[in-house]
Specification:
Layout: H1 10-14, E1 22-24, H2 27-36, E2 40-45, H3 50-60, H4 63-72, E3 74-79, H5 84-98, E4 105-109, E5 115-119, H6 133-146, H7 148-163, H8 177-190, H9 207-220, H10 223-238, E6 252-253, E7 261-262, E8 265-266, H11 267-284, H12 287-304, E9 312-315, E10 318-320, E11 326-328, H13 336-355, H14 381-395, E12 403-408, H15 409-425, H16 429-446, E13 456-458, E14 461-462, H17 469-486, H18 490-505, H19 538-553, H20 556-565, H21 567-572, H22 581-592, E15 596-600, H23 606-612, E16 620-624, E17 645-650, E18 653-654, H24 661-667
Parallel strand pairs: 1-3, 2-3, 15-16
Antiparallel strand pairs: 2-4, 4-5, 6-7, 8-9, 9-12, 10-11, 12-13, 13-14, 15-17, 17-18
Helix pairs in contact: 9-10, 9-11, 9-22, 11-12, 11-15, 12-15, 13-14, 15-16, 15-17, 16-17, 17-18, 17-19, 18-19, 19-20, 19-22, 23-24
Length: 670
């Protein structure tokens, strides 16, 4: 029986034809396990996950392995991107027990969804001290059959231990100058002076940490913060993690030098990095930052935009290498011979030096990842652009990586903010239009009449999974940014609807927030994680959106909730700054006010553009000529002598109004 055929997840659909009798997550699967008295085998992954594909090919497509799984287990397949709550709960157990995690995640549960054995990838044959997948299956099945009391005891102990891990953060007061300075010091200690970025290999793009550094510099003038941000952005832009032909970033660098990426491209990385590079340009005027922001925005629209106007989740790392093999990075890497085929001898030699392509190769089998080892300095720009265009055109003829085309609400919220601001900064109204279309899709398809979000959609059909806290926080963030750019107050109103749901259904005592609503499906533990990972945590995303909405409206309830949530930043910021970067960025905005800018004048006019380009951390902007019907900030803010006028305020207490763009820029300079 093919139970995955009707789902919206491309990852689950990839397994629909497996000989494994997969069930989607749900009560029916656990009732079946209880009826048959067998354990549940939970397999969690996602579409762009390389090792998920490997394990599927090695084990789940194997008839004999599948037959054993079907006889001895109820097998449940979960897309972690559709059900981040399920993933979080069991990943916490995996990490607590083994000290590490990753995907695919393999967990064995009883019929009450309690875990008793787990791991990640298991190979088809035992190697490097790791048992084979079949050995694991046989061992778990034997334990279930022969030692049921021991299995029950282990499951009970794990659930008890997880229940005792509730957070005590929140309500501890606001992070102040001392905590933010300590966070900066901690980042300085972890900074890679030679290659930029933080920590060693693998090296991930620290987009939220860079946002904190930019805001900290804007507020305090700390040059070291700006230097770390600028140098890290420069190193990433020159390295192999950045697609030198098509724009956009891969997931991470496998080495500390930013040379070889893990080639999957995620919507969330590119949305966050697009915004970061736009903000870096706003702070420094860097031409590289401008180029990368625009190229990344164009990549989002060209490669990830769906027919419905939303943005797809990811591009796979793997693709056909032209010989029928599915190989990681095949779409992106080049050999000197391939350069010659496209460019001829002379231009191929130029391209090899320009992009760092060598006979030995920087990747596998003599292929090289394109980089800009010289940064592009001293090179004929027109020639480089021509070579780049010809290589891009040739690459378009290669077999393309697969695309996970489900629309995730949270990640689309991040893309809306990035495209709206990038479009406004660089005079690209088309990007603002794409942001607006994505926002329209979220309202039309993902929000119900009571503003409850669904997590995903695909092909214009809403999924069945409820939105989690990061969906509410990131979508509200996107709507607030879109309102600032377009002058359309309806987006601020939609953000308010979502944030009221956060206050009603995601809030706990003492400023705590939960990743799932109080009326969501009950799991063995209500997930709650305030740390920023590849994306802002739901906790910190909601804190930022609540703070911005309060600055727009004067709502004390939203301000109080934001400040309560920031207690976790006071606790964690000085200790683990790399893992709460967005929380630190929100704390910078809170410490600065944030400033509220009302522009009584035309949307897109000089004063409005100046306000958007202001570097004051987390400043909110309202613009329009029609009074305050849609924007509370515009209430009782008239034009001076009939001229466009700007008001800069904190907590609705304003400086003297100005009609001069240069004066407004000085007021918002940090």
């Amino acid at each position: 029986m093919n139970r995955l055929a009707g789902v919206t997840s491309p990852y689950l659909l990839q397994h629909a034809d497996n000989p494994v009798d997969w069930w989607p997550w749900g009560q029916d699967a656990f009732e079946e396990a209880r009826r048959r008295n067998v354990p549940v085998l939970l397999s969690v992954g996602y579409s762009a996950c390389h090792w998920c594909h490997v394990m599927a090919h090695e084990s789940f497509e194997d008839e004999a392995v599948a037959a054993y799984m079907n006889e001895h287990f109820v097998n449940v397949k979960v897309d972690r991107e559709e059900r981040p709550d399920v993933d979080a709960v069991y990943m916490e157990a995996v990490q607590a027990a083994t000290g590490q995690g990753g995907w695919p995640m393999t967990v064995f549960l009883n019929a009450d969804a309690e875990p008793f054995y787990f791991g990640t990838y298991f190979p088809p044959e035992s190697r490097h001290g790791m048992p084979s997948f079949v050995q694991v299956l046989e061992g778990v099945s034997a334990a279930w059959r022969d030692r049921p009391e021991e299995v029950a005891e282990v499951a009970g102990r794990i659930v008890h231990d997880l229940a005792g891990r509730s957070l005590a953060h929140g309500g501890e007061g606001l992070p102040g100058e001392q905590e933010l300075a300590q966070a900066l010091l901690g980042l300085t200690r972890e900074y890679d002076d030679k290659h930029a970025g933080f920590g060693g290999a693998p090296k991930f793009p620290p987009s939220m940490t860079i946002e904190f550094l930019l805001r900290h510099h804007a507020r305090t003038g700390a040059e070291g913060a700006l230097q770390m941000a600028a140098d890290t952005c420069g190193a990433m832009a020159r390295g192999g993690m950045y697609d030198q032909l098509g724009g956009g970033f891969a997931r991470y660098s496998v080495d500390r030098e930013w040379i070889v990426p893990h080639f999957e491209k995620m919507l969330y990385d590119n949305a966050l990095l697009c915004r970061v590079y736009a903000h870096l340009w706003r702070a420094t005027g860097s031409e590289t930052a401008r180029r990368v922001a625009l190229e990344t925005a164009d990549f989002l629209v060209r490669e990830l935009r769906t027919a419905e106007g939303g943005f797809a989740s990811a591009l796979d790392a793997d693709s056909d290498d032209g010989s029928g093999r599915h190989v990681e990075g095949a779409f992106y890497v080049w050999t000197p011979g391939q350069l010659r085929e496209v460019l001829g001898e002379e231009d191929a030699a130029f391209a090899a030096e320009y992009f760092g392509v060598t006979e030995e190769g920087t990747f596998e089998e003599g292929a090289s990842v394109l980089q800009l080892p010289g940064g592009g300095a001293g090179v004929d720009a027109d020639r480089a652009a021509g070579v780049r265009a010809r290589l891009f055109a040739a690459r378009e003829e290669r077999p393309r990586p697969g695309r996970d085309d489900k629309v995730v609400a949270a990640w689309n919220g991040l893309a809306i903010a990035a495209l709206a601001e990038t479009g406004a900064y660089f005079g690209r109204p088309d990007l603002i239009e794409r942001a607006t279309e994505a926002a329209d899709l979220l309202v039309r398809l993902h929000m119900g009449e009571v503003a409850r979000l669904v997590r995903t959609s695909r092909d214009g059909r809403a999924g069945s999974n409820a939105g989690v806290l990061e969906d509410y926080g990131d979508v509200a963030e996107g709507f607030v940014a879109l309102a600032a750019v377009t002058g359309e107050g309806a987006w601020l109103e939609f953000a308010g609807f979502l944030l009221d749901i956060v206050l009603q259904h995601f809030s706990g005592e003492g400023g705590q927030l939960y990743d799932t609503a109080d009326d969501a499906e009950r799991l063995i533990r209500r997930p709650q994680d305030p740390t920023d990972s590849a994306t802002p945590a739901g906790w910190t995303a909601a804190a930022g959106a609540l703070l911005s909405y309060a600055a727009h409206t004067g709502s004390q309830a939203h301000r109080t909730a934001a400040e309560g949530a920031l207690g976790v930043v006071k606790a964690l910021g000085p200790r683990v700054p790399r893992f709460i970067g967005w929380g630190l960025a929100v704390a910078e905005a809170q410490l600065d006010g944030p400033r509220e800018v009302a522009v009584a004048g035309p949307v897109g006019g000089e004063l409005h553009r100046t306000a958007l380009l202001g570097r004051a951390p987390g400043a909110v902007v309202a613009a329009g000529e029609t009074g305050g019907a849609e924007f509370p900030l515009l209430m009782d803010r008239p034009q001076a002598e009939g001229r466009p006028t700007a008001y800069v305020c904190r907590h609705f207490v304003c400086d003297a109004p100005t009609t001069d763009a240069e004066e407004l820029a000085r007021k918002l300079g940090g």
